[in-house]
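Appendix B. Chain record.
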Amino acid sequence: DLGTEVLESLDFPIQCDHSAHSTSPHHSGVAEFTAQVTHDCPVRPQLFGSVYACCATLGRPGHLPPGPALEMSALPDRDGWQGHGHYRGDASHRLGGAIQTLNQARRKNAAAGTPIECPINGLNVNEVFMRRGQLTLVAAASGVGKSALVQAILQRGNDHGARNSSLYFSADTDETTMWIRAGCIATGYDSSGIEQMIRSDNVAGLEAEVAAATKHMAFVYNTAPSDEDVLREVEAYSVKYGVYPEVIVIDNLMNLYAGEGEEFAALQGNCDFLHTLARQTKAAVIALHHVMGDYSNGDKPVTRAGLRGKIDKTPEVILSLHRINTQLYICPIKNRNGRADPRAEWQMPVLVDLARMNFSG
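Structure tokens predicted for this chain:
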């Protein structure tokens, strides 16, 4: 129970009363709870506000005793707090801002930092992980295979049955292409063969294969989702499955609508939003991104300076890709938890067959 989980993270006794199960108009089926402090705490009013903030962090409003509890949205956008509540302009009340000890923070964020399952041996051996609770940027020129790589990693997991639940925002790639790729990964068929099966209406068996191979994945095909669109889909996922997805993919960062304005500010705002989304949902948020200048051909190592918009400050991990024929190179140009080389001189080779969506290395 979310209320119990939040309150148990505190270091003094709390009693939860689950007798009243009224439902939130914004989160159908999610029971509100009442918290009663049983410890003589000299900062009780501030505590109520903090407990409410902890609950609102995951989009689950709490029904608390009278006090200065704030109404807040589930997650932030660039300009303030919208959606399920109201931002009152006080930076000290930003979500996730409740004062905690290190032990409280560790218990509350136990899933954060957990590597997601990955079939690419070079990444695993070198401990270059995409982690839950963090923002990872995967950058490459168009056609190199960044979308294909991420889809293959999520669909395959560790190749031994362990896979992460995923919500994939495929703004840049259409439904049919994603389905064909999934079929290639599931069966080993090449894409031309699957397209022939589609034309001859001989896909019943293949649909069963795709369904089994992607049962842990959900997809959204909005071509220009806004922050609010993303939040609604994430919340809808949590209502349907009872938990947030372990991985959220934004394909790609340029498609995330940020309103009118200067490109760098929009891209940086997108990164800030996705970074907070990762922190609050404990999902590994993976954003695909373009490169610029001399790197646009896709055949040379992309340094941190080659990222479009130069948005290298916010993500915890940045992987740049380039490809020469059937050899894909993954370059960890930023890795907050391990080794990286911003000049992209450290390169991990992966043998790739894009026609069959096969990555090995």
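Further analysis of this model is presented in Appendix C.
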